[in-house]
């Protein structure tokens, strides 16, 4: 009898639920309200980063939410607000720029940190129309905003998104008459300054490896390059057999053939680290020395060339900064209706 009473008494002291964050118990807004001593509506608005809620309160609610493993019910949230709290980045896999995706994503996640938004990567492959992933995201309402790269002069994605009024920021500009949001790097200035550096170093004939002609930044690079060589009156050559999208081995072989000509270039502009390494390999195979027989300027987007000897002249493009700027601008575009000019950023060299 006494043993049964002890067992019964002990059972009333056992917790009726498991700790928050276990697979059996999912914290809710009500849970957060109880733990913070706030109303459910206040907690909800704090998590939505509503400016009417004091910053200290918003931070406290988010801290408690993280501690107990609270995640909003996305289905219910979407039904209630019409928003997914998702940003979609459409990425083209290519080896032109080392660490392109990683740097861009790092910047974007930093911009989204502390907000209700999550980043989702949507791949786009070169053998499918660029519009396909954008249409899919819009049709299925998979995100509240879209980010994409490698714009074209008359980009169909930009046209469609402007027509539908769907929030977006693109990495790169177009030649469309209608203004649109973008973040871009000044590739005209890159090519112009790279050519001037080569001429100052004593290069007598210049060569540039351009992106595929369908991309807007190919036109910007060509324009900057041509302006510089015409001002200086030096001979030049534009690589015709390969582009920045070509395989590294294809670029190496093309540069080897070029260096084997009767009057080869001795100054090279490479818009990416892969093309620069391939050009350096071709020069080595020809028995030429970097810095004396040939000169090279590369666009640097990683720390790779900091470790290359002899040192290579580089111009840096900060892709993480580009990603962070794109993220901040897109959040602003979703939250309000700013002037388009306030959503256009051109990063200088």
CATH homology-level superfamily of the largest domain: Response regulator
Dominant shape:
elongated
N→C terminal distance: 85 Å
Oligomer: single chain
Q: What is the string of helix and strand elements?
A: HHHHHEHEHEHEEHEHEHEHEEHE
- The total count of helices amounts to 13
Average pLDDT, all residues = 87
List the keywords.
single chain; 349 residues; alpha/beta; 434 Repressor (Amino-terminal Domain); Rossmann fold; 3 domains; 6-stranded parallel sheet; 5-stranded parallel sheet; 13 helices; 11 strands; 44% helix; elongated
List the helices and strands and how they pair.
Layout: H1 2-11, H2 29-36, H3 40-47, H4 55-68, H5 74-81, E1 86-91, H6 100-112, E2 118-123, H7 131-139, E3 145-149, H8 156-164, E4 168-171, E5 182-185, H9 187-200, E6 206-209, H10 216-232, E7 236-238, H11 248-259, E8 267-270, H12 273-285, E9 295-300, E10 313-316, H13 319-335, E11 344-347
Parallel strand pairs: 1-2, 1-3, 3-4, 4-5, 5-11, 6-7, 6-8, 8-9, 9-10
Helix pairs in contact: 2-3, 3-4, 6-13, 9-10, 11-12
